[in-house]
Input
Amino acid sequence: MEIQSTLDSMSSLYEETKRRLDELTILYEMTKISQTALNTDQMIGEIIRVLYSYFNSEKLSVLLLDEATGLWVLHPSSIGFNPKDIEALNLKLGKGITGWVVEQGCPSGVNHVEKDLRLIRNRESILSEICVPLQADGKFLGVIHAQSRRENAYSQNDLRLFEKTGHHLASLIESARSEERYRTVVENALDGVLVMGDDYRLIYVNERLSNLLGCEKEVLIGIDFLSFLDERSQDLLKERDRLCREGEEVPSQFEISILRKNGESRIVEMNSTLIRDSQGNTNHIAFLKDITEKRKLEEQLLQSERLKAIGEMASGVAHDFNNALAIILGNTQLLLLNVKDKEQLDTLKIIEKVAKDSAQTVRRLQEFTRSKIQQDLYPMDIPNILKDAIEITRPRWKDAAQEKGICIDIVTQFEDVPRAVGNVSELREVITNLIFNAVEAMPEGGRIILKTFLRGEKVCVQVIDTGVGMTEEVRKKVFEPFFTTKPFTNTGLGLSMAYGIIKRFGGDIEVASTPGQGTVFTIFLQHATGVEKPKDSPFRIPSGREAKILVIDDEPHVREVLSRGLSAFNHRVTEAHSGEQGLKLFQQENFDLVLTDLGMPNLSGWEVCKTIKKFSPKTPVGMITGWGMELDEAKKRESGVDFIISKPFDLNKILHIVSESLAC
Output
């Protein structure tokens, strides 16, 4: 008896051990499948095949609940079942053994199916069936069931094992679905997403980040993320980690610069979180948003506002300088009329030359400050302008460079582009200036590339050099007037003038540069749709005569210079110190011609001209201005202005204009 009892005990222990081993083996296999499967469907299919071989059933299937219809849908990997037959049964909650199992929330094992009232009859001779609900977190996902044509095919141990299998399968399905939902969200996120370890090596990246870095996802896994950052950004990440390790709080959001695989730099907003597991291991999860265009727009707006403020200030300064230069130049030219001494004559000519050079500098400043688009814009053949600029600059980039023992090549890459709106001579001046800048940026020689291409609706011109490049600080200031990195050889007005010219064309100009890697200037111009070149009218030089002239200016020295200059050529001049006095004198006397300043207190030159034309429409009226020649055309016509004289004026030019006006 004792021996039998011992044998029974050993047998029972063996059975229990085998059951536990079977259970652990199946659960382990299912878990391993879930970790390697690419998606939920593949995972369920492989688990079905494992269970089918273990339970030795003729049929084994997984039915998943369609939440929209409430019907059970046969998984396509189910073995021994015809999807059309299952569909015809119209299985749902409470219907059939499967419906009962889900409704009751408990497993069912039946070894005499034909005697079970829950059975939905069909043509198949099924005798045994076990069915287990798939339930996770209180939610029914479906059922898993096996069928056999043999009676008593499944034992209670089989049912218990099947039940554990069902619980585990439900957990795996829900976990996989959650992961897929998460992965779908992450993969379709508008921002880049990454996971990296303490060594900065990438563990996971989504598609958006892959595109941002310019590399395939598979290639990125295991790569050091720091290799995509510039030096400043690398130091920033390392410093943040050091502070975190020391227990200090750091902002989760910060900006870095990413260097894409093709060398392009992008500004990225990074939001990083540190995740620590129970063993103390850490990973970084980060979201990266490309804000390059946003920063570019902000920079353009800031630059536009800064240049506008500088322009307003410079415009006022230019006006005052022109008044002062008008007095200096006018008096110098008056003295030149009578001086005989050679030494004095030479001294006066030096003063005249310096005054004219200064006037040219002020005129360039006014070119920058003019924001109104000129009316004399017409179609331009861009490639021809670039070719002209190359020839004009050839002595500098070829001959002078060769004399210094260096070689500079100019390469053209012209795509077919339509004509653009602008002014040929001014655009030629801009390109010439950019080529000169490129030459100066290549003291050891190099290459200049001139390109034309279309970008959207814009005609684009690029001037690219392989020179020393610019720092970010220099690049941001490059279009500001008087800013120069060569203070003793350059006025710093070349690029600011280029900026003003392109803006007047209705276009834009941008610069990209990296120290040691050269500079790229890109000009964007509008298509010349509906713009025609104006016809040139013949220029006549009429004979002059003596005249009675009214000069109106609130600046006494300017009035004096004009009066003395005109009187020197036998014109009779009457001076007025204000617009009101000038109109009063005009009503009292007859004048052949009126010269009036534009900017005067109380009554401006516009109002003076308009009133004089009402009194005497045929009397020529000229405007003298220190604000430059670019006055509003419509306002000129409305006020009756016949001609403009820009300060500082040349007496010879004034005499010519006066003579021409009196002859009309």
User: Anything to note?
Assistant: The chain has four domains: 18-179, 187-290, 378-526, 548-663. Confidence is low (pLDDT under 50) at residues 371-375, 487-492, 536-543. The radius of gyration is 44 Å.
